[in-house]
Design a protein that fits this description.
By secondary structure, this protein is an alpha/beta fold. It has two domains: 246 residues, 3-Layer(aba) Sandwich (Rossmann fold), CATH 3.40.50; 31 residues, no CATH class. The protein has nine helices and eight strands. Helix 3 packs parallel to helix 4 and helix 4 packs parallel to helix 6. The longest helix has 30 residues. It is globular, with a radius of gyration of 21 Å. It binds 1,4-dihydronicotinamide adenine dinucleotide. The site of 1,4-dihydronicotinamide adenine dinucleotide has 32 residues, from helix 1, helix 4 and strand 6.
């Protein structure tokens, strides 16, 4: 039986552990040729180790799959270019990109310094921008007369979509990934490149010390991987710009909503601040609430 990604070239960033590793292993089982990217640093993004990506490559090869390692950082333009080059050198093309790499530097807002903010935004948001752009350019270049197609799967978070204490840097980066996903989905539609985002919750080294994860055994990276496979495969169809959320056995979705609002008659002049207060309930009311 042929797999959902048979012969497709898939890149998963941050695939040396956690969610990225589970995604890479599932993609390989579904027939994809993998580029396993990871710098192999700490949770906070310090240090590096090639062994982390190499171990997952070895795991895939032992199971009969095909994979190469990339130890490049997604946070620099040179790293993103090298990542795409690694895929083309090994397999001749690219088809799927999962932007999953991430670090965490939590601190309450008033205590957060510039380096904590920049470091997190660089890996998550800038990394997603740089890798997606390098990937899309390669997809378009290899498309030729037959038209182009490719699939980008970004990784956002409930922290960015709803907010979370101690994560001003991370939430800003993840909310930025939401905006980037929406815009790339619009701009890349003409090249038949779909761009969607996952909002996962799983027990990994990033979350294992959170109180909500203590004693939890049914929220694993393996629960997340099928959602990435869906968005990275042709089962996704032309769906684009969407956020698919997964937490253990729960599969759900996020979207930003706009209230119908209230119009003021043109003859009545501009809204005043006092009128906004007086009409707040009507202005901010959402259907069904
Ligand atoms: P993890 O820490 O196990 O995996 C992240 C991987 O990214 C690590 O292996 C790390 O070495 C790699 N990485 C870090 N900086 C990199 C860089 N500059 N270039 C290449 N690789 C780099 O964490 P986890 O939980 O698997 O996170 C995966 C993604 O899911 C992240 O984007 C995270 O923000 C997101 N996420 C995870 C949630 C969870 O509940 N675990 C919740 C919401 C989002």
């Amino acid at each position: 039986m042929s797999g959902l990604l048979e012969g497709k070239v898939a890149i998963v960033t941050g695939a040396g552990g956690g969610i990225g590793r589970a995604e890479a292993l599932l993609f390989a089982r579904e027939g994809a040729l993998l580029v396993v990217n990871d710098v192999g640093g700490t949770r906070g993004g310090d240090g590096q180790s090639q062994a982390v990506a190499d171990a997952v490559v070895e795991e895939i090869r032992k199971a009969g799959g095909k994979a190469v390692a990339s130890h490049d950082s997604v946070a620099t333009a040179d790293g993103a270019a090298a990542l795409i080059k690694a895929a083309v050198d090994a397999f001749g093309r690219v088809d799927v990109l999962v932007n999953n790499a991430g670090i965490l530097r939590d601190k309450s807002f008033l205590k957060m310094d510039e380096a904590m903010f920049d470091g997190v935004v660089d890996v998550h948001l800038k990394g997603t921008f740089l890798c997606s752009q390098a990937f899309a350019k390669q997809v378009i270049a290899q498309g030729g007369a037959s038209g182009t197609s490719g699939r980008i799967v970004n990784t956002t978070s409930v922290s960015g979509l709803l907010g979370n204490f101690g994560q001003a840097n991370y939430a800003a980066a993840k909310a930025g990934i939401y905006g980037l996903t929406r815009t790339c989905a619009i701009e890349l539609q003409k090249h038949r490149i779909t761009v969607n985002a996952l909002a996962p919750i799983a027990k990994t080294r990033m979350t294992e010390d959170l109180p909500m994860m203590q004693g939890v055994a049914n929220m694993t990276p393996e629960h997340i991987a099928p959602a990435a496979l869906f968005l990275g495969s042709d089962l996704c169809g032309d769906r684009s710009g969407l956020v698919l959320a997964v937490a253990g056995s729960r599969m759900y979705a996020y979207r930003v909503m706009e209230s119908p609002g209230r119009f003021k008659d043109a003859d009545d002049g501009l809204w005043t601040a006092q009128e906004i207060q007086d009409n707040w309930d009507a202005i901010a009311k959402f259907p069904g609430t």
